[in-house]
Amino acid sequence: MRLKKYNLFLVLAASADLDMCWLAIRVIFAAKQTIPRMLNVVLFGPPGAGKGTQSEILLQRYGLVHLSTGDIFRYNIKNTTELGQQAKAFMDKGELVPDSLTISMLESEVVKHPDPKGFIFDGFPRTSAQAEALDRFLNTRNTSITCMLALEVDQEELIKRLLNRAITSGRSDDADEAIVRNRIAVYNRETAPVAGYYQECGKYRGVKGVGTVDEITSRLCAELDAFVQ
Ligand code: AMP
What we know:
- By secondary structure, the chain is an alpha/beta fold.
- The chain is built from 12 helices and 5 strands.
- It folds into 2 domains: 1-35; 37-228, Rossmann fold (3-Layer(aba) Sandwich).
- Strands 2-3-1-4-5 form a 5-stranded parallel sheet, sandwiched between helices.
- The chain is globular.
């Protein structure tokens, strides 16, 4: 929009003709109205907070595309791609996959969806560099993050949930308590500060992540609806 405003000033400055001024104003406002506003949500929270479960519900309710970086990495590991092999070494230890790999993977997933109503970013961004890269990238596509909704769950509850999830998920990074604890430590050290990035621009909302699935969904939707209005 800044560029469009700049163009408008140029046209106004270059033209002493009032009709030309009106035409420029109408063209810009018409263009603005034809670009639908996307709903781009960062669903945030530590491992085991329930991001995956809630994303599945929200994507249906709001017609969004769900992008889970963890799921995309696991898909690549299963299909023994080069990216999967590179990511596996980090994931097995509960460490973050390097930003360079993660950011380019995320961007190439976003562009696969030609006309989305919006995205739910689940597990991304996990570092400040990722948050900044996401903003820059969305800006090139004339859109931005609408809000970050953060699920808040205390640490012992997370560990209990992840060890329990291991029984059905088959994920080795859920099954080993030392790796689980490392993932939470990495979250506290590298990912939690990302919340500040969204707090500064008024886009952050914390949501209690304990209770029934329905209760948590209602809390998330209440926050999301307030952003949509
Ligand atoms: P998740 O399924 O979100 O719990 O992610 C599983 C693992 O994938 C993490 O422990 C990281 O090793 C890796 N991963 C997922 N998303 C990211 C990301 N945004 N940045 C770096 N590593 C990630």
